[in-house]
Amino acid sequence: MNKSAYNYVVLVSIAAGIVVLLHDWSAIPAMSRYDLAGLAALIGLGILSEAMAIYLTVEGVKGAAKSSMAFLPLLTCAVIFPPEAAILAAALIELVTEAALVRIRAAWKAFLNVSQSIIAIGFGAWIYQSLGGTHGTPLQFDFSAFFGLAIAFFTTNMLSVSAFFAVRNGSKFISVVRQVVGPGAINVVYGLLASPISMIAALLYDKLYVGGILLIILPIVLIRYSYLSKIQLQQSNRDLLKVLIKTIETRDPYTSGHSLRVSRLARLIAVDLGFSARRVETIETAALLHDIGKIDSVYAEIIQKRDRLTDEEHRVIKTHAVKGAELLQSLTSFPDDVIRGVRHHHERYDGKGYPDGLMGKEIPITARIIMLCDSIDAMLSDRPYRSAMTVEQVAEEIQRCAGSQFDPDIVEVVLRKGTLAKAAAQIGEESPLDLVGA
Fold first, then answer.
1. Beta carbons within 8 Å of 136's beta carbon, 6+ residues apart
2. pTM
3. Of 197, 232, 267, which marks where a domain is finished?
4. Mean per-residue pLDDT over the chain, rounded
5. Are residues 226 and 316 in the same domain?
6. Following CA atoms 318, 323, 326, 332 in sequence, which dihedral angle do they give, to the nearest 10 degrees?
7. How many CB atoms lie within 10 A of CB 61?
């Protein structure tokens, strides 16, 4: 962890300490036995939810952030009990999770997670009270106050997580936010749609006490199962695609890992161009699959050939873009943007490419990005007939070909953002295990 990230952890921990000190903790001993039992039940549900958490990939780091349903018991706690009880619940849930479930290896991670949770629920509880929300029984429910609580909690938590990874990795804050909220802001949407369960739990507690709280276990499990199934299916499909691509590339050891590198580079460029998370994911997928057409056995001997290709072999190899698009179209599960990106990734900006001779902005933006990424990776990699070019040489080449082979606007962004150095770094960081998919 770099110094800036360490300072961020210290700052968040201090902020959490201030939140704790600003509250009157005499409210906890003053709670009735029934309420203490209810608080214990909510803490138990929170720990159970954390045990079923889904770990997300942020900035290429698997398990960097998590998506959990523990917010349901926390929101319920903030509605039923004083803010101090909600803060205590947040701290205990995170502490037990880090100590018993995650068995965290670095103390700073525990401090960060506990502090972020305290700040989020503390701020949410303050918003709830500011909007007129009340505690205790009989419960006088205020929907506007509750949704203010939920929005404040989710916003604070996600911004805090995003800020940490932006500081730690030196990344753009907005690009990290897009990853944390997920494609189409799915993580936020799921949270807000599920949050009314906390209202139901609070109302049930008003009538049934602890028994009412326990009734929210089933919805938590069902929501968790639905969400996890969706995430696992997406990840499984992506993993299968990567295995398939690597299998194709084993025919030529010189291009092994090429499609994966092109997809990573395409993602970087798409983010730099300011596209939405869903659009970035589409471009990344199309880049990963751009050579999928080469799975056809007709290309096997041509791919493995080390000598110069004949005119006929050139004609045959050029058909792989159309073959790939037709293959993806037959599967019906890929969006049109992916299919068009694969079909047109060899179209040139000046109209001299293939298969359809499209020109300029007629070429889908996905295909224009892949065309540039494909060429950059080829130039930065060793080939049987030449050594890899330097970053400076590649920069000169893509600048020379801007407006003829490549979209000049994309080239300008790549050169301005220093993307070439990142592309060269990812080639240098590869290990043999990465290349064979072990």
1. 80
2. 0.58
3. 232
4. 81
5. no
6. -120
7. 12
